[in-house]
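Quick one:
INPUT:
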């Protein structure tokens, strides 16, 4: 199985690219979803997060993701502590999910923080989705984020240049959804199969 890491800046269009790949028949796993699952109420991860940060990060008995993200945004030690709980669990969950898949085909792993986690080496092929900052701001505003929130997320993320350095392929998502779909189809039909042939 070819394991592809899919990354990109916030609001760049990663999830849409992942959906197009899924529609074409790829296996798709989302790191954000895994990171939510490993701290679901009742899990060992949940217990560890609560004992590390206390009840203030709970809301109706579940983790209050907003409170948690505000906390780690403002406090580097808290961020490290949370990552120490979540990252190994996500990694194990990913490995388990891979083991449960048919061993052939192409797996797309959507991992927004690929560069920040130093994870590029774990993949056979890395794709980054990049997009004009103006378009990204607009998309994020449409999703209900306020400008100051958007700017601080941009600041906190790795730069487009850092993602492009580790990527085998850069998708520039500055046009229509249709144009984006055509890029994904080209990757699916031509670029990834060629890469897979060369690898085997
Ligand atoms: P995040 O990192 O925040 O999860 P993302 O990189 O996964 O963001 P998406 O959720 O795929 O980004 O895209 C953000 C929004 O922009 C979505 O509503 C998506 O449908 C829309 N979008 C993405 N690309 C285009 C495009 N080329 N034309 C129009 N809308 C687009």
């Amino acid at each position: 199985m070819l394991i592809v890491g899919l990354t990109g800046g916030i609001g760049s269009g990663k999830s849409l690219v992942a959906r197009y790949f899924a529609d074409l028949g790829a296996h798709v796993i989302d790191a954000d979803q895994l990171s939510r699952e490993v701290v679901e109420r009742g899990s060992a991860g949940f217990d560890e997060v609560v004992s590390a940060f206390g009840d203030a990060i709970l809301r109706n008995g579940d983790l209050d993701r907003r409170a948690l993200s505000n906390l780690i945004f403002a406090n580097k030690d808290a961020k490290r502590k949370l990552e120490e709980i979540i990252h190994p669990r996500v990694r194990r969950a990913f490995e388990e999910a891979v083991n449960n898949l048919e061993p052939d085909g192409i797996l797309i792993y959507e991992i927004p923080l690929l560069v920040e986690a130093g994870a590029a080496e774990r993949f056979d092929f890395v794709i980054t989705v990049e997009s004009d900052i103006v378009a990204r701001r607009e998309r994020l505003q449409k999703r209900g984020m306020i400008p100051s929130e958007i700017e601080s997320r941009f600041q906190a993320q790795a730069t487009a240049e850092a993602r492009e350095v580790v990527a085998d392929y850069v998708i520039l998502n500055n046009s229509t959804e249709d144009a984006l779909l055509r890029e994904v189809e080209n990757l699916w039909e031509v670029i990834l199969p060629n890469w897979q042939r060369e690898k085997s």
